Amino acid sequence: MKKTWYAVYTKSRCEKKVATLLAKKKIEHYCPLNRVVKEWSDRRKLVFEPLFTSYVFVRATDSEMATIRQTNDVINFVYWLGRPAVIKDVEIENMQSFLDVYTNVQLEKTAVNVNDLVRITSGPLMEMEGNIVSIQNNKVKVALPSLGYQLVAEVKKSNIEVLDYTYQIANMVS
What we know:
This protein has helices at residues 15-24, 65-69, 89-101, 165-173; strands spanning 4-10, 28-30, 33-39, 44-50, 55-60, 74-77, 79-80, 83-84, 86-87, 117-120, 129-136, 139-146, 149-156, 160-162. It is of the alpha+beta class. It folds into 2 domains: 4-101, 2-Layer Sandwich (Alpha-Beta Plaits), CATH 3.30.70.940; 117-173, SH3 type barrels. Strand 3 (33-39) and strand 4 form a beta hairpin. It starts with a strand and ends with a helix.
């Protein structure tokens, strides 16, 4: 059976405990830990804190899902459109690589707004850039200027990245 990565929602401050319990059940999991230097008046110490509060990622088959749900301090799987949200292998790998290199990592939510310049990150239009025309549910319409035409494509929000403001200005000037 094929294993897929999912996000599991845990009770508050129980991420490491859930990871330990999943390990005892021999369920593949990943609890991303951020290396943070804490400073007190008399000392400094490197501590490992969960990067995502109340989340642990599990790589499981459908048959293992019930066992995961029955784990102490697991509330449930994170759902998207009525099904447990699937996390791509490459996203977990990128997260692991990033946390191996950097410390004191901060999470920032990225808002997607109409007229933002974006790059499509996967699918048949991968690496194409354009402006967001509209946003509805899980899809955005992106205008992709090509050959003097406006090509409008519906793309899942998860398949785009917002290009930063300096990148937008540099391309406007050139």
